[in-house]
Design brief:
A hairpin with a 6-residue loop joins strand 1 (about 1-5) and strand 2 (about 10). It is extended, with a radius of gyration of 17 Å. The protein contains four helices and two strands; from the N terminus they run E-E-H-H-H-H. The protein starts with a strand and ends with a helix. By secondary structure, the protein is mostly helical. The protein is about 65% helix and about 5% strand. It has one domain (about 20-85).
């Protein structure tokens, strides 16, 4: 279990994903991650999350996707969370 330094709660990241690439691609990936000062795994996770959000935005005409996007935005809103706790 790793503790997220930007949050006060512990975040469990125990799921692994395998990315297949050539040795040359791997070297470029690690070099790019080093150049921007980020861990290669974190870079992959960030790109994956950006792509997932992009896919959800394309599906945003569907009610379930709209509800999910709205919920995710509200969960980032600390005032909303406090209001929910007090109800």
């Amino acid at each position: 279990m790793k503790k997220n330094s930007n949050a006060s709660k512990e975040v469990t990241r125990d799921k692994k994903i395998e990315i297949r690439m050539t040795e040359e691609e791997k070297e470029l990936w690690y070099e790019y991650a080093k150049d921007i000062g980020i861990n290669p795994s974190r870079l992959a996770r960030n790109i994956l999350m950006i792509e997932a959000e992009s896919i959800l935005n394309k599906l945003s005409t569907k009610p379930i996707a709209k509800a999910y996007i709205k919920t995710m935005k509200l969960l980032k809103d600390k005032e909303f969370i406090e209001r929910m706790k007090s109800d």
